[in-house]
């Protein structure tokens, strides 16, 4: 019983992280219909930026935890957002009118570039950040106990705040309205005076900022990372996006949480060696059985 | 000077400054601050160099695109220029004599080349085989398969496991591995091929990873990350070892001094023949109705289905043929290394094979052969830049997609002439 509860707690935090990254996939897919294969590597870059910002802040004598985490969040989100903008500008915008295959191959190329660029600049070794926040709540259940670290509580708080802010931006602001209009019909939106190129750029920036949020939280919690983490995380987050229904924002969050929960339960109850196999099999199964996902609209093929 | 009157130098300069600022923001932290444990080292020089490069590059680009030539170039690349070059009917290339020449040279090479060159060439040929297989799937049928390495792994492990558990050697496993890989392709492909483009890419990617993870974690069967040994081919039952427990070895039978190079010679020759056979089969398939169907389906799926093509079966045939070619390549890889482990079958291999197909020209056989040798043999020659290999692949993939989405070697095809006596 306590194992199940513990895995549910772990799964919820993991799932909220998947959800944050999945937002980037789902928004980009919704607006230009491409899989941004390099998105996982944007997350990886944000992990490095987190460590760099923490190292810089402690070097300049900032010691208090709230300042460090605030500084790390701002620094990482801004610069990762710049990465999103540059990637779209360099690798995707010139291909706006090309076939889907070309864009996808370009995205794979971008993913390889990011991985190797970080590896060459920072070295191939695993890097880490010091533990900044330790301690945990403990709840006794029967014979065992369930432990929720303060870090996990913080992940949940920040992740859900991030999602709430994003939902507000998309639903209530002018930028959000422009995004939704472009998503529905790009040509019509541009006829009505929306600068669609700018909207697409801002979607990449928002997606990258969300990945950066996830990157900061996971790096602070987990501590260690290398240049290869983006690949697995990217596929998992994509699975979450597909599970929720690609193109749907609440779907990405829901899909992330469902994937996180089921993966943690599988790891805790069946086998942790095969948890990645489980996630990938889930991805294959969803795409075969229900490609439109839980909250997505079924794709209608136009002739 | 009416042409330069339209030049907007201020625009060039602003573009370049913006690009340089973005480069500073993007490259600054990652390249400038090198993590070292919880501390860091500062490296200003690298950042300064890359920002200067971006500034100058953007300045030149901005200037060039304002000239007449540059505008013409933008216009050319803004339009979709897909398709193939069509030659007149009954066109015969004047370069046809190259094929027998390459064949003869290829057969003579192992008798003169050193062992090292031979191993590099074997690796090159293995990638030719992989490139040809993926070319059927991606280039001809237009199905982006990112898990191609999974079939390659199935072929390689089929040889190793067949030898260890069933006692089957190279020659019996060669067809079995190809069939096993094709069968795996069918199992994966049948449900998956109904869905369109991007989803297929992700499902195959997931499949490739599943294969690798299972090979890593199923320790009782595959020995996990430690890998498993694979047998060498035999020459009509003669082994290429120094000594054999079961009868004579190759060098004893022919009264030759023992040389470990013989086995590479033999593997090379067999591989060379197999590559030619695959080339021949592929060349013929493209001209057959099935090959036409692949390409038609790639260009317009809805039109094909309206005309009564069974799109799932047509795609499945391409998928299975590609998979079986990868299975063949896997057998050769296993026997050439004498050993297989899951670390040889990462996603990077899939990306490399994809880079071969993309660079060579999707659908073009000649292009794929050239690209396979370029991407495998050149890194062996240029060891100094080996660490930049992945970076260069990535840049090549992006640049090729923008500059020449159909690859370096364009597909050419002969046009049709009306048959004799046909009603005109």
Summarize the structure.
The complex is a heterodimer of chains A (303) and B (424). By secondary structure, chain A is mainly alpha-helical.
Q: What does it look like?
A:
The complex is a heterodimer of chains A (303) and B (424). With 303 residues, chain A is mainly α. Chain A has one domain (2-289): Orthogonal Bundle (ABC transporter involved in vitamin B12 uptake, BtuC). Chain A contains eleven helices and four strands, in the order ααααβββααααβααα. In chain A, the strands form two sheets. In chain A, strands 1-4 form a two-stranded antiparallel sheet. The mean pLDDT of chain A is 86. Chain B folds into two domains: 2-78, no CATH class; 101-407, no CATH class. In chain B, the strands form three sheets. In chain B, strands 1-2 form a two-stranded antiparallel ribbon. Chain B contains 18 helices and six strands. Classes of the chains: A mainly alpha (303), B mainly alpha (424). Chain A: The chain crosses the membrane at residues 12-35, 42-61, 67-87, 99-118, 148-170, 199-219. Chain A: This is Amino acid/amide ABC transporter membrane protein 1 (HAAT family).
């Amino acid at each position: 019983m306590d194992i199940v509860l513990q895995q549910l707690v772990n799964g919820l935090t993991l799932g909220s992280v998947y959800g944050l990254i999945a937002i980037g996939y789902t928004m980009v897919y919704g607006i230009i219909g491409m899989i941004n294969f390099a998105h996982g590597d944007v997350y990886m870059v944000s992990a490095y930026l987190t460590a760099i910002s923490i190292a810089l802040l402690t070097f300049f004598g900032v010691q208090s935890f709230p300042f460090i985490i605030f500084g790390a969040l701002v620094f990482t989100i801004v610069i990762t957002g710049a990465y999103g903008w540059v990637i779209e500008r360099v690798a995707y915008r010139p291909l706006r009118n090309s076939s889907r295959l070309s864009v996808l191959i370009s995205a794979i190329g971008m993913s390889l570039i990011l991985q190797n660029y970080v590896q060459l600049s920072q070295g191939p070794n695993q890097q880490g950040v010091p533990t900044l926040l330790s301690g945990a709540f403990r709840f006794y259940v029967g014979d065992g106990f369930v432990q929720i670290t303060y870090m996990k509580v913080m992940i949940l708080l920040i992740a859900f705040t991030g999602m709430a802010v994003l939902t507000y931006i998309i639903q209530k602001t002018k930028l959000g309205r422009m995004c939704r209009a472009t998503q529905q019909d790009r040509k019509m939106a541009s006829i009505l005076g929306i600068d669609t190129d700018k909207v697409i750029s801002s979607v990449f920036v928002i997606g990258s900022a969300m990945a950066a949020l996830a990157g900061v939280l996971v790096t602070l919690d987990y501590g260690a990372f290398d240049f290869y983490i983006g690949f697995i995380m990217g596929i998992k987050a994509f699975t979450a996006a597909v599970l929720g229904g690609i193109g749907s924002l609440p779907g990405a969050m829901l899909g992330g949480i469902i994937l996180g929960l089921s993966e943690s339960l599988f790891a805790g109850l069946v086998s942790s060696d095969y948890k990645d196999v489980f996630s990938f099999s889930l991805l294959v199964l969803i795409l075969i059985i229900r490609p439109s996902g839980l909250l997505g609209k079924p794709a209608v093929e136009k002739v | 000077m009416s042409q330069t009157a339209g030049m907007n130098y201020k625009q060039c300069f602003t573009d370049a400054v913006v690009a340089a600022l973005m480069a500073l923001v993007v490259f600054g932290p990652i390249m400038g601050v090198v993590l070292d444990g919880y501390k860091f080292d500062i490296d200003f020089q690298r950042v300064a160099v890359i920002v200067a490069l971006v500034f100058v590059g953007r300045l030149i680009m901005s200037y060039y695109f304002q000239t007449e030539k540059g505008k013409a170039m933008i216009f050319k690349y803004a339009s979709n220029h897909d398709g193939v070059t069509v030659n007149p009917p009954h066109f015969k290339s004047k370069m046809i004599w190259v094929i027998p020449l390459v064949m003869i040279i290829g057969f003579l090479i192992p008798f003169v080349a050193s062992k090292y060159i031979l191993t590099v060439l074997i690796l090159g040929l293995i990638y030719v085989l992989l490139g040809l297989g993926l070319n059927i799937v991606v280039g001809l049928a237009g199905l982006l398969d990112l898990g191609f390495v999974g079939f390659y792994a199935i072929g390689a492990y089929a040889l190793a496991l067949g030898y260890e558990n069933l006692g089957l050697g190279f020659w019996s496993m060669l067809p079995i591995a190809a069939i096993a890989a094709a069968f795996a392709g069918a199992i994966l492909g049948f449900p998956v091929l109904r869905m369109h483009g991007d989803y297929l890419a992700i499902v195959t990617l997931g499949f490739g990873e599943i294969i690798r993870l299972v090979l890593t974690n199923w320790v009782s069967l595959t020995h996990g990350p430690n890998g498993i040994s694979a047998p060498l081919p035999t020459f009509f039952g003669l082994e290429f070892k120094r000594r054999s427990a079961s009868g004579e070895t190759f060098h004893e039978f022919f009264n030759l001094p023992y040389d470990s190079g013989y086995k590479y010679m033999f593997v090379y020759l067999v591989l060379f023949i197999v590559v030619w056979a695959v080339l021949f089969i592929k060349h013929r398939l493209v001209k057959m109705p099935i090959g036409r169907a692949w390409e038609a389906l790639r260009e317009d799926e809805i039109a094909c289905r309206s005309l009564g093509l069974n799109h799932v079966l047509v795609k499945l045939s391409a998928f299975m043929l590609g998979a079986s070619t990868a299975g063949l390549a896997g057998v050769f890889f296993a026997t050439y290394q004498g050993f297989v482990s899951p670390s040889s079958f990462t996603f990077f291999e899939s990306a490399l094979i994809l880079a071969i197909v993309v660079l060579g020209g999707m659908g073009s056989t000649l292009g794929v052969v050239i690209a396979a040798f370029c991407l495998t043999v050149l890194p062996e020659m240029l060891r100094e830049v080996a660490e930049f290999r992945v970076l260069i692949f990535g840049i090549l993939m992006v640049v090729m997609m923008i500059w020449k989405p159909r690859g370096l070697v364009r597909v050419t095809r002969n046009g049709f002439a009306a048959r004799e006596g046909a009603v005109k």
